[in-house]
Amino acid sequence: MRMTADRFMERGSSGGPEAARVSLSSPASLALVEGIPTLLFYEQCIREPTADIIRYGTVRDVHRDGSSVAFRFIEEGRFSRATLAEFEDRLDIWANRTHWAVKEAGIPSGMMERLIPTYDVVFSFAGANRTYVSEVASYLRDRRVRVFYDEYEQVNLWGRDLVEHFSTIYSQSGRYCVMFISAQYVESMWTRHERRTALERALMDPRDYILPARFDDTPVPGIRSTVHYMQLRERSPVDLAQTILRRLGRAVE
């Protein structure tokens, strides 16, 4: 990612002793902004499909590249634009102008409670197929892939309204949704909700979001027969996990 250098910590946008130590004229000082909580978003006047998404994470490899500042952004979650507006005064953020600011204060705890985590892949499956899916999830997690798999989320799910939370997960949180299709999958109330939410996201997303994988040939409402899928009858969990790694652009050992 990159932005024009003249917008980096422009006058009045930053403050505090930490910000005073950071300067484009001192390349070594740019490392000070790496690893600290960061919000990345479009200014309010931008009309983009993702304009209302506030990304939360950290920056890495910050450096000057000609007239620009280049960096990598490691996303950990997202906020809505409405959440940002609620905490805008406390954050002292200019939401109507593109710029890079360094602030002394951290992200308010009340705002962090509304963070929507992001995942490389979210799994939608029936309980009857858990043994297979669990092995896929374990293989991916061991290789630092961010996976939404319900057994990994028990603390986070405790006390939540699952209908509302799963709507957020399957509509916003994943880069891909792997749908493990079986007769039990089609019959389950919860997977029906997950599937409908994922299909709504797929309708709005120009990229291929749903990656179907089949245990059998059960028809699935909303999934066309012309969509290519992975056949699991003779494919091991490790084989499928490695295929997912490749789809994510990761190296396979």
Question: Overview of this structure, please?
Answer:
The chain is α/β, with parallel strands linked by helices and 253 residues long. The protein has two domains: 111 residues, no CATH class; 130 residues, Rossmann fold (3-Layer(aba) Sandwich), CATH 3.40.50.10140. 32% of the residues lie in helices and 23% in strands. The strands form two sheets. Strands 1, 2, 3, 4 and 5 form a five-stranded antiparallel β-sheet that branches. Strands 7-6-8-9-10 form a five-stranded parallel β-sheet, with helices on both faces. α4 links the parallel β6 and β7. α4 packs across α9 and α6 runs parallel beside α8. The longest helix is centred in the C-terminal third of the chain and has 16 residues. The two termini are 28 Å apart. The model has no long low-confidence stretch (mean pLDDT 87).
Question: Which tags fit this structure?
Answer:
253 residues, Rossmann fold, 5-stranded antiparallel sheet, 9 helices, 23% strand, elongated
Please write out the topology.
Elements: E1 2-4, H1 17-20, E2 38-40, E3 53-65, E4 68-80, H2 81-91, H3 109-112, E5 116-117, E6 119-124, H4 130-142, E7 147-148, H5 154-157, H6 162-173, E8 174-181, H7 183-187, H8 189-204, E9 210-214, E10 230-231, H9 237-247
Parallel strand pairs: 6-7, 6-8, 8-9, 9-10
Antiparallel strand pairs: 1-4, 2-3, 3-4, 4-5
The largest sheet is: 5 strands, antiparallel
Order of helices and strands: EHEEEHHEEHEHHEHHEEH
Query: How many individual β-strands?
Result: 10
How many helices? The count is: 9
CA distance, first residue to last residue: 28 Å
